[in-house]
Design a protein that fits this description.
Elements: E1 2-11, E2 21-33, E3 39-46, H1 47-50, E4 58-69, E5 71-77, H2 91-104, H3 109-125, E6 128-134, H4 139-151, E7 155-159, E8 161-162, H5 175-189, E9 195-201, H6 209-221, E10 226-231, H7 235-244, H8 251-257, E11 265-269, H9 275-284, E12 287-290, H10 292-297, H11 305-311, E13 314-317, H12 329-341, E14 344-346, E15 349-351, H13 358-364, H14 367-372, E16 390-393, H15 399-406, H16 411-421, E17 427-431
Parallel strand pairs: 1-4, 5-6, 6-7, 7-9, 8-9, 9-10, 10-11, 11-12, 12-13
Antiparallel strand pairs: 1-2, 2-3, 4-16, 14-15, 16-17
Helix pairs in contact: 3-4, 4-5, 5-6, 12-13, 12-16, 15-16
The structure holds guanine and zinc ion (ZN).
Guanine (GUN) binds at residues 77, 91, 95, 99, 202-203, 230, 233, 294, 320, 323.
Length: 435
């Protein structure tokens, strides 16, 4: 066992106020071996209260630093790293002109492997220690990323993209083969070390009914496997789904009709929803991956935080690289704040803007995102029993951060200063539980 002495940020669990942070100015984080060689948090709290309970323990003292849970990115695309910043009129031309041509390259294992190496290094540089990411439709892209994540002992969830229609040659897959490949990849990778598999229909327009049905059957056969897709991101996309699935009540209900909504299902965007959709999210235990930099960049719209909280469904934050513009959770949290602020015309009424609390923003990218994945108490927090994936923040990292954080008079002010001014420079070190 060993310990770190520094300021410590974590999140309340049972008994504490929901989504609120616990902050120790002078804390001790004690970690040691848990199951399967993964390091876990043994104890955490004020230094003066805890240190006497661990006589002789090696303590690494990090004055002026803040330890915080590693960030959880609920949705992104590792093959789209080189697509970041490609402007388009909207989602559908962006897919056609930039994304599909780029994803074709991942048929080759060597291309996938070098992209996976860069991607994982970039996650770690930005303090992201758990990710739910799309691969491409090529099994090689999945094998490359799992292989690389395994080397780093990272908790990572990915899957082969299913897209057997409305997709160009080179990324379109075959219905039967795509389902056979998915099952083989589940058996090969799911639950191995810290890796998890996600059944990954790209979105309803790119999947035939037979493919969606097959995906739903696999989801029933492997209940602890994840499901990831996109829904209700863009108005043209929503209209297209209405044409393709005229019998469905809504875009979201297409997925429900095929057995693709349940715990461990995570849908990106969830913007153009009505209250029946929100209730369906809640009742099925499905989670939304809120992707604010992507939604602002592609002009998709604004996630309705008040609507989500009124219904009470799960959500967390996501970079959605490469529709999203940054790997940095600080940039994503700031964009989420802007999205909350926006007052939006909805159904002829003005939906007023909110000022999201910084503890709530941070929670959405850590403990809240972990809860959305069904991994509460496993990652995204630094409570006893959690896997010890954490980051070391240096609030002196830039002259402006140093000046502004020195003037913070409360935890909210400190967190807000880091959200607004922070980026990868704030993350001095990323520590993975197994290393
Ligand atoms: N919908 C279907 N595919 C994609 C994708 O790659 N990115 C985004 N943002 N939306 C999608
Ligand atoms: Zn996406």
């Amino acid at each position: 066992m060993h310990a770190y002495r520094a300021a410590i940020l974590r999140f309340a669990t049972d008994g504490g106020p929901h989504r609120s942070a616990v902050y120790e100015e002078d804390g001790l984080l004690v970690i040691g071996p848990g199951a399967n060689g993964v390091q876990v948090v043994h104890a955490v709290g004020p230094y003066r209260d805890l240190v006497g309970r661990f006589p002789g323990i090696a303590v690494e003292h990090l004055p002026g630093r803040i330890l915080a849970p590693g960030f959880v990115d609920l949705h992104l695309h590792y093959p789209q790293t080189d697509v970041i910043g490609s402007p388009a009129e909207g989602l559908l031309p962006w897919l056609e002109n930039y994304t599909f041509p780029e994803e074709k390259r991942f048929a080759a294992l060597d291309h996938s492997s070098q992209a996976a190496t860069f991607f994982i290094a970039e996650l770690l540089r930005n303090g992201v220690t758990t990710a739910l990411t799309f691969a491409t439709s090529h099994p090689a892209s999945v094998n490359a990323l799992f292989g690389e994540a395994q080397k780093h002992k990272l908790r990572l969830i990915t899957g082969k993209v299913l897209q057997d229609r409305h997709s160009p040659d080179g990324v379109r897959d075959d219905t039967e083969q795509s389902l056979t490949d998915t099952e083989a990849l589940i058996r090969q990778w799911h639950g191995k070390d810290r890796l998890g598999y996600a059944i990954t229909p790209r979105f309803a327009p790119s999947c035939s009914e037979a493919q969606l049905r097959g995906a739903g059957e696999l989801a029933a056969r492997y209940p602890d496997v994840w499901i990831q897709s996109h829904v209700a991101e863009n108005r043209d996309e929503v209209a297209w789904v209405r044409q393709l699935f005229p019998a469905a009540r809504s875009y979201l209900s297409v997925y429900d009709d095929f057995g693709l909504m349940r715990e461990r299902a995570v849908y990106a965007h969830c913007i153009h929803f009505d209250d029946a959709d929100r209730a369906l999210m809640r009742d099925t235990g499905t989670a939304a991956a809120v992707s604010p930099t992507s939604n602002l960049f592609l002009g998709s719209g604004f996630f309705d935080y008040a609507g989500a909280d009124r219904a009470g469904f799960r959500y967390g934050l996501a970079s959605d690289v490469g529709g999203g513009t940054s790997f940095s959770p600080f940039h994503t949290m700031l964009a989420a704040y802007y999205v909350g602020r926006a007052s939006v015309e909805q159904g002829g009424q003005l939906r007023p803007g909110l000022s999201l609390n910084p503890q709530h923003l941070w929670w959405q990218h850590t403990a809240g995102a972990a809860q959305a994945l069904g991994l509460a108490g496993v990652v995204g927090n630094l409570q006893p029993g959690c896997e010890a994936d954490f980051i070391v923040l240096n609030p002196q990292a830039t002259p402006l951060l140093a000046r502004r954080t020195a003037r913070a008079n409360s935890l909210d002010e400190l967190l807000f200063a880091m959200i607004v001014l922070g980026d990868d420079r704030l993350v001095e070190k990323t520590v993975i539980a197994a290393s």
